[in-house]
Amino acid sequence: MTAYLAEAPASPRVLDALLAEADAELDAGNTGHALAAVERARILTEGPSFGDADRAAVFFRLGRCRLAVGSVANAASLLTLALDLCDRSVLAPDALRVEILDWRARCYQRQRDWEAARADVERAVELAQALGDPLRTARVLFQASIVAERERQWLVARYYAEQARDLLTETGDLAALGKVLNNLGGIHFLLGDGVRATECLEDALAIAREGESRLDIGYALSSLAQLRLRTGDAAGAIVDAHDALDQLDGRVDHANEVASANLVLARAFAALARVPEADAAFRRAEDALRDFGSDSHLAAAWLVGGDVARAAGDETRAADLYRRAAEALQDVHF
Length: 334
Hints:
Elements: H1 2-7, H2 12-27, H3 31-45, H4 52-68, H5 72-87, H6 94-110, H7 114-131, H8 134-150, H9 154-171, H10 174-190, H11 194-211, H12 214-230, H13 234-247, H14 255-271, H15 275-289, H16 295-311, H17 315-329
Helix pairs in contact: 2-3, 2-4, 3-4, 4-5, 4-6, 5-6, 6-7, 6-8, 7-8, 8-9, 8-10, 9-10, 10-11, 10-12, 11-12, 12-13, 12-14, 13-14, 14-15, 14-16, 15-16, 16-17
């Protein structure tokens, strides 16, 4: 990278290299390194050799970096700026617009603005389909499924997830297919089909292990732990949740899944009357979510903490945690 900068400090080739570096670091969970690359790219694009399309690509990555560290409102603003820059440029590709809309929808989900999230993913799906890009279409259909699931529209969520699954099966993108199967398993469970849920989650785990992706293995194990817990296998849930946390170790950029696995542990330990271990797991989940930027996730953690406190006989602390959860989700504040 240093050689590129010395050779041609204002070259599009340098910009492409910096953006590729940022993408790789973000995928690996190295947010600080990604941010450093994006900042170099931002300074580079201030020069006259670059236009609004280049700056849009930079602000898109900057928004992703801010979201990774929990600065959700700032991330949404940066992604909106990136989209505005795209609209000002005839050179901005629709593929970039799709990516921006996808990630801004994720910001809106954390802010519980479901209408805005749904609008972004629906627009992203239309653009991706118009591009004739099955992989990009599958990714945004996956996000559309997640939004529908959070809105409790489980049949719609299944429809989008199955469309994404079919596209990824045709294209052979196994890594992305595993992620979709993981979520589809959860949707099947919510619809009351435990058999299909188990099949999807086991397939997701097999794909993740074949690809040797610790992150995807962690997600699949965490989902299987949740399934075991909800079907009465607390001991099995503890084993899978511990294994999931081993795979997710160090991935602070996936604090939501780290917290989810710990909350499964908390509930499973409580079901087995191992209250001190349940409380320790709840506190780890709460700590993981402090900088995640999602009231919904924190409220879910506090509900579990309240149940654990009740199991310990501490009604005062339980009431406080339940109150925190209610206040985090209320829409009227005055």
